[in-house]
Specification:
The protein has 142 residues and is mainly alpha-helical. It has helices at residues 3-20, 31-42, 47-54, 58-65, 73-83, 87-91, 107-116, 121-141, and strands at 92-93, 96-97. α3 crosses α4.
Length: 142
């Protein structure tokens, strides 16, 4: 065999190896990414195969599986079609949202901020200004 033939054969073997083997995760996967990865595996697709089905680069699939941010809405529709599920199934896992809601203050403070979020923007800005002064004042005194 010629050296060209051997190097070409080696490249084919490496490509097959690389397509099957993923990198080890160094940190836990976010819920949404983990859910998307599980649905892809359940459908029997590799990241590369899914990417080709929706017309996106494989790197995008890898990013979404490592992220807690969902793909854009038009991509969600293509993903749902490729995985043969409803769009809602991509965003909901076992009846609870796969997208984690942002945390915030608990109790009375949360209720007040929720009420304030319904006010006009200018009034919200005044409240933020007012509360910021108090927070800074208490931070200095402690």
């Amino acid at each position: 065999m010629s050296s060209e033939n051997l190097s070409g054969q080696g490249m084919l073997e490496n490509r097959a190896y690389n397509n099957r083997m993923g990198r080890k995760l160094t940190k836990p996967r976010p819920r949404l990414g983990e859910h998307l990865a599980a649905m892809r595996v359940k459908a029997g697709l590799s990241q590369d195969e899914l990417a080709k089905k929706i017309g996106m680069p494989q790197q995008n699939i890898a990013y979404w599986e490592q992220s807690d941010k969902p793909p854009r809405s038009e991509i969600l529709m293509a993903l749902a079609d490729a995985l043969k599920v409803k769009v809602e199934a991509l965003l909901v896992e076992n009846g609870s949202p796969a997208i984690k809601k942002k945390g915030g203050p608990e109790g009375k403070l949360r209720k007040i901020f929720e009420e304030a979020s319904n006010l006009p923007r200018r009034q919200q800005e005044k409240i933020v200004e007012f509360v910021s002064v108090f927070v800074k004042q208490y931070a200095i005194n402690e």
